[in-house]
Design goal:
The chain is α+β, with helices and mostly antiparallel strands. Helix content is 50%, strand content 14%. It is built from 26 helices and 25 strands. A hairpin with a 6-residue loop joins strand 10 and strand 11. The chain starts with 11 loop residues before the first helix and ends with a helix.
Length: 885
């Protein structure tokens, strides 16, 4: 057969295939005949044709008489061998209890962390997985100008124009996700009861929205649940609360204790699952509702979120282009009719876009709305943390396996001498790795069960272990096999490569000295740990800066009483009574406060007489009373405050520095601004943060008004407890059937940064876990180093070495590794945290002390970890150790 070469030889792969499946009786004879036949054919035909005929002849021999048969005894041998591998692996674990515990413990911690983070990421990515979700979108505005931005609010008739003008849209519905005219109130009661209950989750919606967002009803018909005026759909938990053990269809509820706002229940919906970007308990109908006169047929008032579902054959990108005609036909037309000079700017820079429903939650606050959001950056960050912590655990396993190589060298050498193949040794060590992996997975599941409630409290989630999901246990088993195989690959090939002659001559005893790879892995572990420590320090420093920075108003000692709009005409009397209380310094009533959850109202302003010449400036327009500035501690820089005794103040305005700058006003007190009417500027206040510090302070105008749903009470620092008792007493005299609700301004301010705070706490927990995993490996390595250098240490002590010199000898290599890790970690940590800080308009500067402290912390932790073994080695009697050796 050796004469068949090059063009005279068929493809090697088919020959190999034949040798693999054929039995010994036909192998040589048949293959020789086929090769001779092939050579004969080559004389009269092309190689391609001869190859094909050769392959066909081989396939003909795929018959039972020619195939190799596996004997039952071979299968039993394999089972016996695998059983033997397991026994050896189990005994090896038992002989090295400390090292085995560290291997399993580090593995289990890493795996438990990965499992928890996997559940978190899976939950974050599962938001808004609804029926027809691939065809469901939200309309948003994208302004491309200098003051560009993205937001979801549209005019009232946007939905009707889309419905009638674009046949590719199957259904469209509107949503107002907050009661902007009664911010912070939302009081609900049955019509046959007197006491109201505060409810947070109330929205206005079209009937078609129920279908677009796939909201199932338990009671009622989804096609007409919100079609009637004054109808409402409530959640199951609210139906059980207000109408227990009964079908509430047709029953009535009263909103904000207002007899003109009695709503009839038209449906009961399933409670929203945790993975939806909207979560409401009450949908009030938008049928026949008009918040501003004429708004349903005008482009004046942008208050409605629009959701739509496309037909199966529709192209969303083509529809986006078509939506531009709405801007040109309706919006620009409205601006032209009203003489608004921003018409050309709108035509050039304003567009309508479609956002897929499953991207709303993780888009963060990129598009302005009033819904809860996650952040894809945190998903990626925690995913990376999980991978790195798992890598740290795998590195521990590899390091300890190779470090103990000298202890396994004799076993490997002896087994090779008596005939073991390297492949069987590799299988043996991989079996040990798999055993460690499966034991670690079992312990990791227990850790996950215990840790999950703690993680839920940190992350503000309600994650559960998906025990009954079909994929859960198969995924665990597959992961255990995969991770065990990956972690055991290098040790298996490393340990099985020892040569018997080297072992017998004592050359394989360098487990502690040939450790360049182990050193690199330790450097990687501490690099990862230092980066996590830097991240933790930066997040906490930024949060401290936010909560303690000069924000332009005084958030301390301000009591916020909610639901005061139900006082109606008695609100001023209530305010006067509160002002008389000892310890109360100021009282104001307003819906507008510099914290989330209160009212916002964006308007366009011009300098007087410039509406046809200049572009409008977008600014917040807040209605407040004459005590607002004093209560909030907002500093008046120029002019005066409002006064009820000055009649002209009904057309007066106080603006902030940002608005002065945006309008280009030189002498504010001598000018007027204009939106729907002229306003005389009577004062300028210092800029203050009324939005999170991720946003720049924007223009703001105060106008004199009355009433609101939030009463803010400024209290002297030593009177808070007494004032709360007195305020409660006064409240009961005005509203005996309504429980008082209050919070504190500083707490509401801090809640604006809950997401950042949670991320900091989670990252801190993961940093601690990473350090623990790294230190477990470091502890075991240091113990092994001491064990390997017992004789050297004893001789040094006999010759007069001090404890300090022994300590230095055993720790200096680890210190060098941490220093190298620090040098690598600093630029990586600086880059990552600088990218994170870019989300904030107002932020800390990354200074050297953050990195120095992170490095010092990691160095101290490393020294503490190895110190125990080093000091222990230096204190043992050298004579006793030498005698034992």
């Amino acid at each position: 057969m050796t004469g068949f070469k090059g063009a005279n030889r068929p493809p090697e792969w088919i020959i190999g295939f034949f040798l693999w499946f054929s039995n010994d009786h036909v192998k040589d004879a048949v293959l020789g005949d086929l090769l001779e036949l092939y050579q004969y054919r080559r004389r009269s035909m092309s190689k391609r044709k001869a190859d094909l005929l050769f392959i066909f002849n081989i396939i003909q021999f795929l018959q039972p008489f020619a195939t190799r048969k596996k004997r039952r005894s071979t299968q039993l041998n394999h089972l016996d061998m695998f059983s033997n591998y397991l026994k050896i692996a189990w005994r090896s674990m038992g002989r090295q209890k400390m090292y085995s515990a560290i291997k399993v413990g580090g593995f289990a911690l890493g795996l438990a962390t990965c499992m928890v983070i996997f559940l978190f990421i899976r939950h974050e990515l599962s938001y808004d997985n609804i029926a027809n979700g691939d065809r469901t979108y939200r309309v948003y505005n994208h302004y491309l100008g200098a003051d560009g931005g993205k937001w979801v609010s549209t005019p009232a008739n946007m939905a009707s124009v889309i419905r009638t003008s674009y046949p590719e849209v199957e259904k469209v519905g509107r949503l107002i996700p907050y009661q902007w005219f009664d911010a912070g109130s939302n009081l609900v009661r049955r019509d046959d009861q007197l006491e109201s209950t505060f409810e947070e989750k109330i929205a206005y919606a079209d009937n078609d929205l129920l279908d677009v967002l796939d909201i199932p009803l338990i009671y009622g018909d989804r096609s007409k649940a919100l079609t009637q005026p004054r109808s409402v759909v409530i959640s199951k938990k609210k139906a059980d609360k207000y109408f227990p053990n009964e079908n509430p269809i047709g029953k009535m509820i009263v909103l904000n204790d207002d007899k003109t706002k009695v709503f009839t229940i038209g449906g009961v919906m399933e409670d929203f699952p945790a993975n939806r970007h909207i979560d409401f308990d009450f949908f009030l109908t938008l049928a026949n509702v008009e918040f501003w006169k004429g708004e349903q047929d005008s482009w004046c008032c942008w208050n409605y979120d629009v959701y739509l579902r496309l037909r199966p054959d529709a192209n969303p990108h083509e529809l986006e282009q078509k939506l531009l005609s709405i801007k040109d036909t309706y919006y620009v037309g409205y601006l032209k009719e009203t003489g608004n000079t921003s018409m050309e700017d709108v035509q050039k820079n304003h567009t309508f876009k479609l956002q897929p429903i499953d991207e709303v939650y993780l888009a963060g606050n990129v598009i302005g709305d009033n819904h809860r959001h996650g952040d894809i950056k945190y998903v990626w960050m925690f995913g990376a943390v999980a991978v790195f912590i798992l890598l740290l655990a795998c590195i521990n396993f590899i390091n300890l396996s190779t470090a103990k190589s000298a202890n396994r060298a004799k076993e490997v050498g002896l087994r090779k001498v008596v005939g073991s193949f390297r492949s069987s040794l590799i299988r043996q060590f991989l079996t040990e790795s798999l055993l460690y992996s499966f034991v670690s997975f079992g312990i990791a599941i227990l850790i996950m069960i215990v840790a999950l409630p703690f993680f839920n409290s940190l992350a503000g989630k309600t994650l559960t272990v998906p025990w009954f999901q079909w994929w859960f246990f198969p995924s665990l088993i597959a992961s255990a096999v995969l991770i065990g195989f990956i972690a055991g690959m290098y040790p298996s090939f490393y340990l099985s490569a020892f040569k018997p002659i080297d072992v017998l001559k004592g050359r394989v005893s360098r487990g502690s000295k040939s450790g360049s790879l182990r050193g690199a892995m330790v450097v990687f572990q501490f690099t990862t740990s230092i980066i996590l420590i830097i991240g933790t320090f930066v997040i906490y420093k930024q949060m401290s800066y936010i909560l303690n920075a000069k924000i332009g108003f005084n958030k301390e000692q301000v009591l916020m009483i909610q639901g005061a709009n139900t006082l109606n005409k008695n609100s001023e009397s209530f305010k006067i009574e509160l002002s008389k209380l000892a310890g109360v310094e100021h009282v104001t009533i307003s819906n507008y406060l510099p914290v989330h959850g209160t009212h916002r109202d964006q308007n366009g302003f011009w300098r007087e007489g410039k509406t046809k010449e200049e572009k409008s400036v977008g600014a917040q327009a807040w209605w407040v009373d004459e005590d607002y500035l004093a209560t909030m501690g907002i500093k008046l820089l120029e002019g005066r405050n409002f006064s009820r005794s000055i009649a002209s103040d009904s057309s007066a305005v106080i603006i902030n520095q940002a608005m002065v700058k945006a309008l280009g006003i030189k002498d504010p007190l001598s000018e007027k601004v204009e939106n729907w009417k002229p306003w005389k500027i009577i004062g300028v206040v210092e800029d203050f943060h009324f939005e999170p510090m991720t946003q720049k302070i924007g223009p703001l105008a105060f106008m004199l008004g009355k009433g609101g749903s939030v009463v803010s009470v400024k209290v002297s620092s030593d009177q808070m407890t007494n004032v709360i008792e007195e305020v409660t007493r006064v409240w009961k005299t005005f509203l005996p059937n309504q429980p008082i609700r209050y919070t504190f301004l500083d707490e509401s301010y801090a809640r604006m940064y809950d997401d950042v705070n949670r991320a900091g706490r989670i990252l801190t927990s993961f940093s601690v876990l990473a350090i623990v995993v790294a230190c477990l490996g470091l502890f075991a390595l240091s113990a092994f180093m001491v064990e390997q250098r017992n004789k050297e240490i004893s001789i040094r002590l006999v010759l007069g070495a001090s404890m300090n010199s022994i300590f230095k000898l055993l720790t200096q290599n680890f210190v060098i590794m941490v220093v190298i890790a620090f040098v690598i970690a600093v630029p990586i940590g600086w880059y990552l945290m600088q990218k994170w800080l870019d989300d904030f308009e107002y932020k800390i500067t990354l200074t050297w002390d953050i990195f120095a402290v992170a490095g010092l912390v990691s160095l101290v932790i490393a020294l503490l970890t190895v110190s125990y073994q080093s000091i222990k080695a230096a204190l043992i009697n050298p004579a006793q150790r030498l005698k034992q050796d």
